[in-house]
Amino acid sequence: MHWKFGTMWLELWLGSLLLIFARFSNAIDAFVGINIPTNLSNLPSPELVVGILRTHHITHVRIFDTNPLLLTALSDSGIEVMITVTNNEVLAIGESPSNAASWINTHVAAFKPATNITAIAVGSEFLSSNPNAATFLVQAMANLHKALVASNLNDEIKVSTPLSMGMISKPFPPSTATFNTSWNSTVYQILDFLKNSSSFYMLNAFPYDSYVQSNGIFPIQYAFFQPLPVVRQIVDPNTLFHYESMLDAMVDATYYSIAACNFSPIPIIVTETGWPWSGGANETDATVENAETFNNNLVRRVLGGSGPPSQPAMLLNSYIYEMFDDEMKPGYGVFFRNGSSVYDLDLGGSSGNFSGGFCVARKGADPASLQGGLNWACGPGQANCTAIQSGQPCYLPNTVMDPAYLPEVQTRVLVGSVHQHLDLWVPQEVCHRHIGFLNPGI
Ligand SMILES: *[C@@H]1O[C@H](CO)[C@@H](O)[C@H](O)[C@H]1NC(C)=O
Ligand SMILES: *[C@@H]1O[C@H](CO)[C@@H](O)[C@H](O)[C@H]1NC(C)=O
Ligand SMILES: *[C@@H]1O[C@H](CO)[C@@H](O)[C@H](O)[C@H]1NC(C)=O
Ligand SMILES: *[C@@H]1O[C@H](CO)[C@@H](O)[C@H](O)[C@H]1NC(C)=O
Ligand SMILES: *[C@@H]1O[C@H](CO)[C@@H](O)[C@H](O)[C@H]1NC(C)=O
Ligand SMILES: *[C@@H]1O[C@H](CO)[C@@H](O)[C@H](O)[C@H]1NC(C)=O
Ligand SMILES: *[C@@H]1O[C@H](CO)[C@@H](O)[C@H](O)[C@H]1NC(C)=O
Ligand SMILES: *[C@@H]1O[C@H](CO)[C@@H](O)[C@H](O)[C@H]1NC(C)=O
Ligand SMILES: *[C@@H]1O[C@H](CO)[C@@H](O)[C@H](O)[C@H]1NC(C)=O
């Protein structure tokens, strides 16, 4: 079904505004983002991807490469973006500072400042698949950092490398965890780099895997951030910290491992975590209900604002794995490729009580972009577009793209995160309280 952009009033969900206020009452910088598998054979259109992100209040994304169409679509969206140097690119960048400089020019500088790139993940568990190329990894990180310094982008953009829990030999109890000693020198160099460049440690941590491998030792509630009866609580015998979730314990194991290398705490960001909703016949806990429980409880836990027991001031910021199903590791996708959700997930953690708002097409806005935005908003975006249909109270005919035709409105709200094609208005009398969302598209 096609929707007429000439109806002029475009509904806007004010959730993002509420989110901004919610963030001040909570821990200001706590967030849960999402991984976007950009290396899919058929990634949904970048406009659809950005529309989904906005509908679900997603403020942080990590993409698995540097997909230029998506980076462009994310411009002026207010969404923070972590990009990835693919494992295949690490060697060349580690070998030559000029390769690093040209990578930064092509994949970063060309998109700044419109696209808010704030981090570069160098490889993806590179050490697990390339154990003999560790020196290239460390050198690639250093070369990229130098290139950022040369471009004066090093304050805004941090360089790090996602490491798996497999780097830690025995993660429980957390207080005695250490990195696998065969990685001593590599880990030391990585930590030294992170410390010197005020960056953070990127951790991929999947409670699902540990839960499955534990063969029933850990109750599923522990993986789900749910309270346990006193007799079943998970306690570190050395520190007597009570661990309320497996993710807390995994992150703490990493903090203790860093400390064992004689480094003061380096902030950890969980670059991948999640729960599959489908799996093999023997994966009985990979259900939609469990994936929904894990991810929504993760959001609640993280936005609650405290860190793990040993580092209560360090936020547990995390990126959910992942937005769409990936052929290589299927079953984790939170959204189908048509934009509908596999299960409910709201990363804003807000109550869903929005006052209605509308936005108005800016003079000179590209009609095709607006049409695309409307098609998305009134279709997969699930905005209630009834009111702007012909014969309905908010319908205005095609000719009124010009703001001069606007009825009197009392409040004008400009939201920085909304695409520049649109100015936003909140009419307080006309069409009050219609709730919807618009992705203006590009
Ligand atoms: C980009 O993100 C950073 C970190 O949250 C923020 O401080 C900055 O204002 C953002 N920049 C833009 C242009 O949105
Ligand atoms: C440590 O890493 C080495 C090399 O990857 C591996 O063979 C060994 O099993 C690991 N040790 C532990 C305790 O995980
Ligand atoms: C790694 O470091 C630990 C603790 O400092 C030490 O005991 C161990 O021998 C080292 N291993 C290697 C392979 O260097
Ligand atoms: C980090 O800083 C220390 C002290 O300034 C220096 O010795 C070391 O080489 C630096 N390491 C890296 C990876 O830049
Ligand atoms: C399911 O079975 C496959 C093949 O036997 C095995 O590789 C996998 O680890 C099993 N998964 C679970 C969750 O037990
Ligand atoms: C996409 O990249 C991610 C991260 O590097 C990797 O885990 C996944 O296997 C890749 N998928 C495909 C289809 O290449
Ligand atoms: C989207 O795709 C899923 C899975 O293929 C399907 O179940 C669902 O009905 C589709 N939704 C829409 C709105 O087409
Ligand atoms: C939602 O709005 C209604 C009407 O303004 C109000 O009565 C209700 O308390 C609100 N609910 C929440 C959860 O804020
Ligand atoms: C959509 O909005 C119309 C009024 O514009 C309202 O009558 C209708 O109930 C709404 N539909 C839904 C599903 O909220």
UniProtKB/TrEMBL annotation:
Gene Ontology CC: plasma membrane; side of membrane
Pfam short name (any one): Glyco_hydro_17
EC identifiers of the protein: 3.2.1.39
Annotated catalysed reactions: Hydrolysis of (1->3)-beta-D-glucosidic linkages in (1->3)-beta-D-glucans
First and last residue of the signal peptide: 1-27
Annotated membrane topology: Lipid-anchor; GPI-anchor
Full protein name: glucan endo-1,3-beta-D-glucosidase
